[in-house]
Amino acid sequence: MMFILVLSVLTITDAKKMTKLKFPCEDWDKEYPFQNGVLNNCSMAIDPISVTQFLFILKSRDFQWELFRFNLRFEPKETFKTKCAIEPHIWTWTYPAPEGAYEFLKWPKEYGIWSFGLLDMYSYSMNIKVNVYGNCPVIIGGKETTQRIAAAVLEMANKSTTIKAAPKDFLYGSVCYNSKVFIPQFIYFLCKHISCPVEATGYRCCTANETSIVCNGENLHYDGAWWVFPFVLGLLMFAFSPLFLVKVFQKVASSNTEGHMQMDDTMNEGTNKWLSCNPLSLFSIW
């Protein structure tokens, strides 16, 4: 009995270690899963029950949802992640403007403050089950796994276009996961100690068209000019605000000193017997 208990504990411990195992980050330019053969020996598909739920949710709001956050559950495979993948099981699906929210994916993660939470009104989160077919590891953030997940999710989204009144823009949807962005050492120093001129995370996306899917290895970024401008402005304020405060305190000190000198002259004339304020202050002794 004791042997079985110890064996069970070791098995659970090994499973936790495997789940926490992180693979090196992978870089790539552009990949086309329907052309490069990544789906030949191993593929993924969204479970039919999850597909039905997704289509029902879309139709229940007359296709007014602009962004979906999927919490992926893989069956029957154990999942791993690369060191760059952030929240590896959370994947985002949206479609192009004007109805979709693709441009939002380029925003910094502080979008909730920028938009006052308005975008959340058109976002929906749901769990979906992903069936894995074939002998291949599920490494979220890896090049091959990214393509297989994208093909499965985008295939599910494309089924919505068979429903009457569904926007045709769904055919051009994008599915993305959040990933770390490599930044140079000097920029990292600024981010850690002063202020950050770049976004340290960004979405990696696979986008569909009418006949194919392309997975771009580069992270989406917000427009550089609008992102760097607040940083430069903040850096200038950080550098010159102490001088501004010194100038203000100098003015206050000089005005207090003149007031105390006038008070002393009045007291010498004998017109007042009582002090209306304390003539001593921190600025008067400088």
Structural features, described:
The protein is of the alpha/beta class. The protein contains six helices and eleven strands. The N terminus is likely disordered. 37% of the residues lie in helices and 22% in strands. The chain has two domains: 204 residues, no CATH class; 62 residues. The strands form two sheets. The protein has an eight-stranded mixed sheet. The protein is elongated.
The profile of the biggest β sheet is: 8 strands, mixed
The counted number of beta strands is 11
- What's the structural domain tally? 2
State the secondary-structure class.
alpha/beta
The Cα radius of gyration reads 30 Å
What is the string of helix and strand elements?
Answer: HEEEHEEEHEEHEHEEH
- Count of runs of 4 or more consecutive helical residues: 6
| Low-pLDDT residue intervals, each spanning 5 or more residues | 1-19
What is the molecular shape? elongated
Q: Beta-sheet strand percentage? A: 15-25%
Lateral strand order in the biggest sheet: 2-11-10-9-6-4-7-3
Instruction: Estimate the helix proportion, in percent.
Output: 25-40%
Mean of residue pLDDT? Answer: 78
Termini separation comes to 83 Å
Summarize the structure.
This protein has 286 residues and is α/β, with parallel strands linked by helices.
Give a quick set of tags describing it.
alpha/beta, 3-stranded parallel sheet, 6 helices, disordered N terminus, 11 strands, transmembrane helix, membrane, single chain, 286 residues, transmembrane, 8-stranded mixed sheet
Helix-strand layout with pairing:
Elements: H1 2-20, E1 22-23, E2 30-31, E3 43-46, H2 48-60, E4 67-75, E5 79-82, E6 85-94, H3 111-114, E7 123-133, E8 138-140, H4 143-158, E9 174-180, H5 185-193, E10 201-208, E11 213-216, H6 224-268
Parallel strand pairs: 1-5, 4-7, 5-8
Antiparallel strand pairs: 2-11, 3-7, 4-6, 6-9, 9-10, 10-11
